[in-house]
Each structure stands twice: as structure tokens, then as C-alpha cells.
Amino acid sequence: MPAFHTYKNPALATDLVVFGYQDKALSVLLLNRKEAPFKNGWTLPGAFVGLEETLAEACRRILDTKLGLRSIYLEQLYTFDTPNRDPRGRVISVAHFALVSQGKLTAVAGKMANDVRWFPVTDIPVLGFDHRQILSAAQERLRAKILYQPVGFELLDENFTMPELQDLYECILGHSIDRRNFRRKILDAGFVELTGEKKEGLQNRPADYYNFNKKLLPQHFHLNL
Amino acid sequence: MPAFHTYKNPALATDLVVFGYQDKALSVLLLNRKEAPFKNGWTLPGAFVGLEETLAEACRRILDTKLGLRSIYLEQLYTFDTPNRDPRGRVISVAHFALVSQGKLTAVAGKMANDVRWFPVTDIPVLGFDHRQILSAAQERLRAKILYQPVGFELLDENFTMPELQDLYECILGHSIDRRNFRRKILDAGFVELTGEKKEGLQNRPADYYNFNKKLLPQHFHLNL
DNA sequence: CCAAAAGTGTTTGCTTTACACCCATGT
DNA sequence: ACATGGGTGTAAAGCAAACACTTTTGG
Questions:
Q1: Does one domain contain both A71 and A172?
Q2: B56 closest CA partner among B44, B43, B73, B68
Q3: I need a surface site. Which of A9, A82, A166, B135 has the fewest CB within 10 A?
């Protein structure tokens, strides 16, 4: 039986679109490359896939070692194979996207290597490889996904207020939503519940804290926003 | 600059879920393997990806040479990487699905190799590798996709009647739909138009022929069926 | 007491659902 | 004429959009 990994196959890599939410803006982690190609240019974090690891494991390895992020939401996005996407040779990349909650985000903020930076999605520099295209695909996926799966909570703290959740939705969807209708639709979907606590210390009426009800929920719904 | 394709990478393949619609049933093309592993068992058609071809090109190559099918709808589905999905070694497969129109389907019916057969999706044999899982993912994608992109037409003839289109939708979605509401929603979506011809020769009132209006349409809609 | 932002409910209009009748053909 | 399946319209219900007032805090 032949050893298939000795065949002349394209090389296999993963690239990661890591989303975070901070200062009321959706952001992405970008890496400043120290080597050619695209030396000193910005790209998505990525790596080649080893023989002994799954795609998810390769992604976790990048997240852990390069970015200091553990146990965060991860999902396969799409496989990119444009012939000259990598000037070094034929590399096919299985892109993934990840979501970092505000808690994890601030926890590792200090430890981050200085060649890694958050960029708001509204202000992305020129990216190397085909990473602009990958990023756009990830944004599109996130936009679609947030309407039928409880994925927004991966970007917030465990406790969040309704206005915070709405801000996040508006950031991702790119348009504003009526407060009252938003609240009703989210509550009708039934995957958040009041914690009983309130967010105090603001200059106005305290907001109720909610959290994501992980147990008794339908894993799939449909929001019309 | 190193030659990346000499790295120890997992091998890269594609597997194809080819859908057809015949005898009022959604069907899939399966291949009877002549070699181990899964000798004499049924699997999806597939192949390793060469260094000089894109994923889509690899798929077209399979479709053309193994199945005699040209210029049909093709879309990337998902990349499967379970560690032991292939007993021969580490193979990662970028699954695709394809849609064969009734015209093409009958045109090549005779030329098909005798180790290739159509199976209605309601009656699929045990499949080798992880192909059962791939097939299920493809069905799910098709179900979702048919509701917001004009993809059903890829499975029918150029001209089709409203009842034919409805039968197809019911097959894919797995439930029945009210005739009058179906008709209205399809027409409201605005991507079909009357040809003026009628399907005659039945034992009852002739049905109007429609065709898919490829030009002046929004490529994206939403059907609530 | 004023400004700022959070919480709540109601009315209006549209979309979806459910459903019944007429029409064209072959036998 | 009758059986079969195709074409059309309408009334009722459910859902989404628009919108105004009250509440709680800090200054």
C-alpha cells in the first residue's frame, strides 16, 4: 500500500480569521510578517498542516502558541485554492474563523506579541496573499450565521446587557435596528435569560444583565433583523 | 526558497456528490470500487488533487473522464479531515457537490461506465470512507441553498412546468407545499418567466412551461417554504 | 430638575397560510 | 359526461415595522 503523503500534492495550510469585539467595533487579529513574502506586510495568522494533526488541531496550535488564545469558538470557513495565492508555490488553505469573547480578549491583551494587532474591520490595511478575500468571506459568513445560530455570545462577556448585544448585532450586520423590536425578537427566540443583576455605574438608568442560556435551547432559530 | 510541496503534508483529494433528478426522486451518483479499500463497495467518486490543477479542475476532470459529464453546476461543500477517514493514510478531502440537469442526465445515460449507478437519496447503500457523512452534508446544503438561490433549475430541463418545479422542491425539502402558495412565491421571486409553450400530451389540462430567467434577476432572494 | 439612556406596549400594515372554484384535456 | 390534474383568487391569522411614553440614574 503506497504512502500517499509522498505523492506530489499541493501543500496544505490553514489561515485564521480571529474576530473580537471591543470599543463597540468588530475587529480582526492581523500579523505583521517578519519574513518574505510580504515582509513587514499584514496577513492573517496561519500555518501549514502537519501529518499528525487535524485541521482544527492546527488552528488551535496557532491560536495557542502564536496568539495565546485557548478554548474559543472555531469553525471551518472555506478552502481557498487560487493557483498563485502563495508566491512560494502551490498552497491550498483551509480557512477558519474564530470568535474571542471580551473576557478572553482582555485577559491576553498584555501577552500578545508585538507583531500581532487588532484592526477594526472598517479599517483593514492591505493584506498579503488572498487574505482580503478570506476576510471578506468570513465577515459574510458571520453576518449570515448570527441570524440563525447563537454565535454572538461568543464575542461578549458571559453577562451582557440588551443594548450591548444590539450594538454587536448592528456592527456585524452593518445597519441599525429598532431597540424595542430587537429586544422582543431576541427574547422570543428564547436563548437568553435575565441574571437578575444590573449594570450600574453609568450616568443613567442601570441596564439588566442577561446571559446565554446554554441548556434548554433550540440550537437553531431564525431572526428577522 | 523551499519547495513547499516536498513538505510532509497530508494528501489532498476531492470527493463529489453528484445530484440528479429523475422519476420524481433526487438521486446521487455512486461508484462501485474495483480496488481495496472497500473493494466492491459503493463510494462517492473522487480523486487526488494534482499539483497543477485547482480543486474545481480536479472535480471537472472526475466528472468528465469518469462520468462523462461536462459543464454542470459545481460548488465547494466542506473539507473533511477526520484522522482515519481513509485507511490508506492521511488524506484530507475537499468535498464538492454537482447538479446534473435532466437533459445532460439522459444524454449521457448510455455512456456511463457500468460501475457507476444512480441511487435515490432515500435508498443509499452503505458507503465507504466517511462518504455517508459527506452525502448528508451535501443534502443539507442543497436544502438550505434552494431557498435563497436559483439552484433548482440546474436539476431540471431548460423548460419546466410549475408542478415539476414543485415536485423537485418537495423532494429536496422533504415535505409537501400548497400548490397555489408555491406558485405565487416562485413568481414573486421573479426569476422564472413563461415561455408561452405548454406541456401537451398529458391526460389532462396542459401545463404552462417556464424557464429560468438568467439575465435580469437578483442573484439572491429568500423563499419561505 | 434636567439630560441621557433603559425599559415597556400598542397600532398599522404586510406576509403567510388556508382554502374552493373554474379550466382544459383524454377517455 | 366524467375523471384528472393545472390554473387562479380571497379571507383570516400571524408577524414585523413603526412609534411614544415611562423609568432610573448622575450631574
A1: no
A2: B73
A3: A82
Same domain flag for B112 and B184: no
User: Total domain count for chain A?
Assistant: 2
**Pick from B10, B78, B82: which is nearest to A49 by CB?**
B10
As a three-state string, the secondary structure of A3-29 is CHHHCCCCEEEEEEEEEEEECCEEEEE
Whether residues B127 and B157 share a domain: the answer is no
Minimum-distance CB partner of B79 among A7, A51, A94? A94
Kindly state whether residue B177 falls inside one of the protein's structural domains.
yes
Distance, angstroms, CA A166 to C1' D27?
Answer: 27
What does the pLDDT read at residue A110? 67
CB A12 to CB B10 under 8 A? yes
A160-218 pLDDT tens trace: 999 999 999 999 999 999 999 999 999 999 999 999 999 987 889 999 999 998 776 66
Q: What is the CATH number of the domain that holds A139?
A: 3.90.79.10
Give residue A63's domain range: 4-145
Per the listing, cell 406541456 goes with B199
CB A26 within 8 A of CB A172: yes
B129, B176: one domain: no
Q: For the whole prediction, is pTM greater than 0.70?
A: yes
Q: What count of Cα atoms within 13 Å lies in the side-chain half-sphere of residue A16?
A: 31
Shared domain check, A51 and A73: yes
pLDDT band for position B200 (cuts 50, 70, 90)? confident
**Which chain B residues 67-106 have CB under 7 A to strand D?**
none
Q: Which residue is nearest to nucleotide D9 (CA to C1')?
A: B180
* Interchain contact, B2 vs A88, CB within 8 Å: yes
Please tell me the distance from the alpha carbon of residue B154 to that of residue A4, in angstroms, as a whole number. Answer: 35
A177 domain residue, yes or no: yes
Q: pLDDT for B137-150, tens place per residue?
A: 999 999 999 999 99
And the C-alpha cell for A43? 496577513
Q: Consecutive sets of 10 residues in chain A, 225 residues long: mean pLDDT of each?
A: 58 97 95 92 96 96 92 97 95 98 80 84 97 98 95 94 97 97 95 94 92 76 92
In a domain, B55, yes or no: yes
